[in-house]
Amino acid sequence: MNQQEGKLIIFSAPSGAGKTTIVHHLLKKIPNLEFSISATTRQPRGDERDQKDYYFISKEEFLHYIAKKHFVEFEEVYSGTFYGTLRTEIERIWAKGNTVIFDIDVEGGLHLKRKYGEQALAIFVQPPSLEVLKERLAGRGTDSPEKLKERFEKAEKELNYAPRFDIILKNYELSEACAEAERLVKDFLRK
Ligand code: ADP
Ligand code: 5GP
Q1: How far does residue 103's CA lie from ligand 2's centre (Å)?
Q2: I need a surface site. Which of 47, 86, 142, 159 has the fewest CB within 10 A?
Q3: Which ligand ends up closest to the CA of 54?
């Protein structure tokens, strides 16, 4: 690892598993962790804010960044909707001496793990079952019926990716999952 580089913590899971909730908990509890703000072409949801939760950009802008090779990784996570990690985002966080923490889909998470190897800790958040995942996603109340269907279908496939991650973190009881996540991340940062 050269001096400009640091560590990365990757949280991946199907939509609704609880990764955003757990990542927000860690950001409050562990100093020097900084959230990697992804770029996306989807519209803001609920109280999400530009440049805090995402860089909300147009499809044209996204395609321009792809052509200019500005992304470390990107995916068309849902049909017509792109998400990606900008190289400048990781550099910005490392330049401050901070560790980057990601909330990213399963393919994107594995992509980053392959790229950064031992510098990265890749955690898969596992819900108790597909049924509970569906209840959580519907209960969040942020997606239209069509969007929910698309997310459910993708979730079913994504659950099979769990064994490819460094760690599977069960998110059954939320406070237990948060405590375990804190322990895992602190251990990794001590190494
Ligand atoms: P993701 O970021 O993986 O899509 P979220 O963090 O948005 O998932 O969680 C989905 C919904 O489930 C949210 O409404 C959240 O409050 C809820 N949730 C998360 N973890 C638990 C848990 N262990 N038990 C019950 N509800 C949970
Ligand atoms: P949401 O629309 O619920 O915020 O995110 C949908 C999915 O896209 C989630 O699984 C989220 O983790 C993932 N995602 C967010 N940012 C990125 C990114 O930069 N790259 C990839 N590959 N996936 C992302």
Answers
A1: 7
A2: 47
A3: 2
Q: Is the pTM of this model over 0.85?
A: yes
Decide: helix, strand or coil at residue 109. Answer: helix
Domains annotated on the chain, with CATH: 8-190 (3.40.50.300)
Q: Does the beta carbon of 15 sit less than 6 angstroms from any atom of ligand 2?
A: yes
**Could you read off the pLDDT of 92-104 as tens digits, one per residue?**
999 999 999 999 9
Give the residues surrounding ligand 1 with Cβ less than 6 Å away.
13, 15-21, 136, 139-140, 171, 173-174, 177
DSSP states of 34-79: EE--EEESSPP-TT--BTTTEEE--HHHHHHHHHTT-EEEEEEEET
What sign for the dihedral angle of Cα 44, 58, 52, 150? positive
Residue closest via CA to ligand 2's atom 20 equals 84
